[in-house]
């Protein structure tokens, strides 16, 4: 039976550490501040943003909450971002994705000052990450790395298969894992004989967004399995991309859904915000 990679527990532990870091910063006269921008009323995004604000509050991070109507134009959102870029009390800027169709996501991401880009999605930060010298790391990949590290799962020399090539998960995670000496294959919707590939993985990361598509036949015995999916099954239950019941018998370690990667994403956002505030104290702009 697989060991549970408990993201909920680890995220709580990180929150306690961050509380102490924030206290120290406040003593030095700096309160970390995160601007959380939500455009529209997508119910899932509302939940994620609420959870982010809640965790920030718990840690002592101030938030500036900007909730804009679904009809907001790209120009209006760019104006909001320009103001946040200029506001020296704001250490981190987060624009919740996805954005409504009239707004180009890349245009918005590129407008964020890369030194305040807590999501690490700006091409500057993606480039730094791919060069092996990250400044800000996307939260979900960073959370996965922390979780593996917590359970002493080394990446060196391991065969990793990441299924999914999104900018939020697959691409940055591949870069991070290469930086940690793994041999990484990124699979996607055009990959042929997918399960033949996944069955060879020492570490499998499922990030496709298809409910329970990976069963025991897709997994090597003893593999570490990271489930990034958040889906609803036919019964309306929250499930991952991995059939947890079937895979738990085969894998050595497995992230649950919920309570695995999701809470780690939010914890890493908080960590990045505190790091940016610490850099402002040290006067580091671009290290
Ligand atoms: N600007 C960003 N937008 C989005 C990101 C991101 O990192 N930055 N990632 C996802 C959504 N996301 C954070 O924003 C996120 C998704 C899920 C969870 C989470 O805690 N999930 C829970 C289950 C939640 C539920 O009940 O629905 C879990 O897995 O335990 C946190 C953050 C897309 N957008
Ligand atoms: Mg993230």
From TrEMBL:
Residues 5-119 form the Tetrahydrofolate dehydrogenase/cyclohydrolase catalytic domain. NADP(+) binds at residues 164-166, 230. Residues 138-280 form the Tetrahydrofolate dehydrogenase/cyclohydrolase NAD(P)-binding domain. It catalyses: (6R)-5,10-methenyltetrahydrofolate + H2O = (6R)-10-formyltetrahydrofolate + H(+); (6R)-5,10-methylene-5,6,7,8-tetrahydrofolate + NADP(+) = (6R)-5,10-methenyltetrahydrofolate + NADPH. GO terms for cellular component: cytosol. One of its GO terms (biological process) is purine nucleotide biosynthetic process. Pathway: One-carbon metabolism; tetrahydrofolate interconversion. The keyword Lipoprotein does not apply. Gene3D superfamilies: Leucine Dehydrogenase, chain A, domain 1 (3.40.50.10860), NAD(P)-binding Rossmann-like Domain (3.40.50.720). CDD domains: NAD_bind_m-THF_DH_Cyclohyd. It comes from the Bacteria. Its EC number is 1.5.1.5, 3.5.4.9. InterPro entries: Aminoacid_DH-like_N_sf, NAD(P)-bd_dom_sf, THF_DH/CycHdrlase, THF_DH/CycHdrlase_cat_dom, THF_DH/CycHdrlase_CS, THF_DH/CycHdrlase_NAD-bd_dom. Keywords: Amino-acid biosynthesis, Histidine biosynthesis, Hydrolase, Methionine biosynthesis, Multifunctional enzyme, NADP, One-carbon metabolism, Oxidoreductase, Purine biosynthesis. GO terms for molecular function: methenyltetrahydrofolate cyclohydrolase activity; methylenetetrahydrofolate dehydrogenase (NADP+) activity. Homodimer. Catalyzes the oxidation of 5,10-methylenetetrahydrofolate to 5,10-methenyltetrahydrofolate and then the hydrolysis of 5,10-methenyltetrahydrofolate to 10-formyltetrahydrofolate. Belongs to the tetrahydrofolate dehydrogenase/cyclohydrolase family. This is Bifunctional protein FolD. It comes from Liquorilactobacillus nagelii. The gene is folD.
């Amino acid at each position: 039976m697989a060991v549970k990679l408990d993201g909920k527990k680890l995220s709580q532990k990180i929150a306690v550490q961050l509380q102490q870091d924030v206290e120290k910063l406040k003593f030095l006269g700096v309160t970390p501040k995160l601007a959380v921008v939500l455009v529209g009323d997508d119910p899932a995004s509302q939940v994620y943003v609420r959870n982010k604000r809640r965790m920030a509050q718990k840690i002592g991070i101030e938030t500036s909450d900007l909730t804009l109507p679904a009809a907001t134009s790209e120009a209006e959102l760019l104006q909001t971002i320009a103001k946040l870029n200029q506001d020296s009390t704001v250490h981190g800027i987060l624009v919740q994705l996805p954005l409504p169709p009239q707004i180009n996501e890349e245009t918005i991401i590129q407008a964020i000052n890369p030194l305040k880009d807590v999501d690490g999605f700006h091409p500057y930060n993606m480039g730094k990450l791919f060069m092996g010298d990250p400044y800000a790391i996307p939260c979900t990949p960073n959370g996965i790395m922390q979780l593996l590290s917590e359970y002493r799962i080394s990446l060196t020399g391991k065969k990793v298969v990441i299924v999914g090539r999104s900018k939020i998960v697959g691409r940055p995670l591949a870069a991070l894992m290469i930086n940690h000496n793994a041999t990484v294959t990124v699979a996607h919707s055009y990959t042929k004989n997918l399960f033949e590939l996944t069955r060879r993985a020492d570490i499998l990361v499922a990030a496709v967004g298809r409910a329970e598509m990976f069963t025991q036949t897709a997994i090597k015995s003893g593999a570490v399995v990271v489930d990034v999916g958040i889906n609803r099954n036919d019964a309306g239950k929250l499930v991952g991309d991995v059939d947890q019941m079937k895979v738990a018998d085969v894998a050595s370690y497995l992230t649950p859904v919920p309570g695995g990667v999701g809470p780690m994403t939010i914890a890493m956002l908080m960590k990045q915000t505190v790091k940016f505030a610490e850099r402002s104290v040290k006067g580091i702009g671009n290290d």
